[in-house]
Amino acid sequence: MKLKKPLGALNIFCIAAGAMISSGLFVLPGLIFLRAGPSIILAYLLASLLMIPSALAQCELATAMPKAGGTYFFVARSLGPLPGTLFGFSNWFSLVFKSAFALVGMGAFAALLLPKGMSPEAHEHFVRLVGAGCCVFFVALNILSVKETGRFQVVSVFVLLAILVAYVGAGARHVDVHNFTPFVREGWSALLGATGMVFISYGGLTKVASVSEEVRRPGRDIPVGMLSAFIVVSLLYVLAAGVTVGVGGLDPAVSDVSLVSRTPLCDGAAKFMKAPGMILLAAAAMLAFITTANAGILAASRGPMAMSRDRLVPRFFASVNRRFQTPHLAILVTGAFMLGIVLFLRLDVLVKTASTLMLLLFVFVNISLVVMRASGIHSYRPRFRCPGYPWLQVAAIVLYGVMIAKMGELPLLIAAGFLLTGALWYVLYVRARVSGQSALVRVVERIVDRRLGTSGLESELKEILVERDNIVEDRFDKLIKECRILDIEGPATYEEFFDTVAYHTSEHLHTDADSLHSQLVEREKASTTAIAPGLAIPHVIIGGEGKFDILLARCRRGITFGESAPPVHIVFVLLGTRDERSFHLKSLMWIAQIAQNPQFRERWMNARDEGELRNIILLAARDRETP
């Protein structure tokens, strides 16, 4: 059963913004300030710049392959089932850990309402129980309806943005420039390390790719929603951090990490808005944790669903509830995993590990984009294309590698343990069940000039395009699926080419080959059918009733249609009876629409075989007859 598609650009904006604005803004600034001082502002700015390559890569891959699972799906289709297995689990774990951290944050802020004098043990139990209750609530919300989830996200995010804009606007009038000196207090090396700590705050942006299959118009809505959220939230991060430092919300005298405030924006608001401001920002923090946890469950549950479709995990993960049309079992398992973390696990090391895994994912997202572009697969047709290819991706891969190295020894060891566990799962469970193809095979094939077999991937991407573009098969498509395709080397004259055409079509049309050849030649002599450089559409009316046929041809070295005309490499031959004249004219119009695509000629000449030539026509953008 297919998923519903209730999400639009506004929902995408809110899912992305809600996933980004969380503990990275309401909790983390105190720790970053301890390490970098006032240059925390620059750390947030640098982190946003480092996110640009991955944000753009996610936009391209998501518009080309809008499928549940997002990052996992991209990696699996570009690099193969083993990397797909490893990073499917990595993506799932990192999203679950990040969302669980937000749930615990909700419990911590709720604990501010408790009376003083409560024992530390009782306080801890309260925090975890509140987080667990919120987890159960959001799991139920995600099972009932993605649409209701999207509506809740829209309202929550806009309230949150309004509070943050009010904080920045009011606080800007109380900024003391002396609080910014010395700006780079701990040196540039400390600033780079602080940037690495901030970077995970932007990781939520890529959660959008995980729900791309549920977007109405992914080619438009994903780039618009994702990139607008990125710009808005990046500005708010930098401005909010600047106001918090400027009003004295962060104490430069604190040198012990245990004494660092976990509520820096609340402290900043208290400086110029007193108790009401502190309460308002505490409410904003709670709302931020709510949107992060909600978006996290929504995105994380789609990872196991996509892996189940590929038989990398048991098939029940792919089950879609018949009543609510949501992946209820994947949501329940994700929620149970998150509930266990909230109730029983310490999250400090796990959050750092999740950051390391997320950085690894970003490395492979950029590698995936490079591989998909280099593969030359004709069914890879993103509606949004990442600028700066391939140098932007190469720079991102190198920079992310440097940041991974600075995450610390223990997170690296734990991340390596996860990867080894994933590799063991692949060997024991996955390898015997899958024989997936990847775009990497196609790249190798192009280098060594051998066909290693990527037709399955080509077909899968074709089906994704059909669903993405809402292509409804009409009579023209059915004719293209069954028509004869000539892929000839040439060169040839048009008389020689028409002789071949008559030989291949006369039997199907129940007509004489010599007579058909003569008609085609006479039609060409009367007026050339080479309507554009390199393109010809020979068409004649044949005897009988209810007959219509199409023949497609590619001639690499060209067919001569006239002494002064350039050689023709692309030919559409239309043969029909007089009663099919209306459909004949429609076919001419559709062919003209197809040929007008700027990339059509390049795709046609670079197609590997008849199957790819056929798919170029079937997947082309054109008007279609309604059933």
Describe this structure in words.
The protein has 627 residues and is mostly helical. It folds into 2 domains: 25-429, Amino acid/polyamine transporter I (Up-down Bundle); 471-618, Mannitol-specific EII, Chain A (3-Layer(aba) Sandwich). 64% of the residues lie in helices and 6% in strands. The protein contains 24 helices and 6 strands. It has helices at 9-20, 23-26, 28-36, 40-64, 71-79, 81-110, 120-144, 146-171, 188-199, 218-246, 264-300, 302-309, 328-344, 348-375, 391-405, 409-430, 439-448, 455-468, 475-482, 494-509, 513-526, 581-595, 600-606, 610-618; strands at residues 484-488, 492-493, 535-536, 539-542, 548-560, 568-577. Strands 1, 2, 3, 4, 5 and 6 form a 6-stranded mixed beta sheet that branches. A hairpin with a 7-residue loop joins strand 5 (548-560) and strand 6 (568-577). Helix 1 packs parallel to helix 10 (218-246), helix 6 (81-110) crosses helix 7 and helix 6 runs antiparallel to helix 14. It is elongated. Residues 447-454 have low confidence and may be disordered.
